[in-house]
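Note to self: keep these together.
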Amino acid sequence: MKVLQSGESGWPLSTQAGELVLSARRLAYSPVLKALFVADVHLGKAATFRSLGVPVPAGTTQENLDRLSLAIADHQPHAIYFLGDLLHAKAAHNKDLLEKLHAWRLQHADIDMTLIRGNHDSKAGDPPATLNITVVEEPFVLGGFALCHHPHTVPGALVLAGHEHPVVVLNGKGRSRARLPCFYLKSDQLILPSFGAFTGGYQVNPQAGEAVFPVV
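Structure:
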């Protein structure tokens, strides 16, 4: 089991659809396509909780955008594909969040960005047209990959998906345990960890022939 740690340039993964680099920043990069794949950013989730009276930390939007900028600096992509759930809910369409998102988009105006619509995007509504983010439905075929939000089988393609927010539990010495986000590789799917800083996770139990890549 390869554990991805911050500070590493990434872990190369050979797949039937081409090489990917798995990043400890919780995203994947295709050197051939020069594309970043990011799942489940969930911008505005904390704001949504606060609007319902739930006390949660502020600042997660800027944190997520800053981490995306670091990933862009790492890999210099020509394109970014968001694998669903870029915005969490209608409450994400607030002045403060959209100003931050527009400022970030202007910093990376030369990068093509595409959102594969997820279940939260359908509820939140598409990003404003001024962000210049193309919105498409799943599956979106790109070379040998099928870009989706919901994990499922697409014949003849390796599915890159999110939605499940996979995590794996590692047991240490004594009673110590670590619950870590992970990439979850199946025979025809790679499920990416949730990129968002304020998201939960679903524990996976890999079967024979499957692999997980925890992120520290």
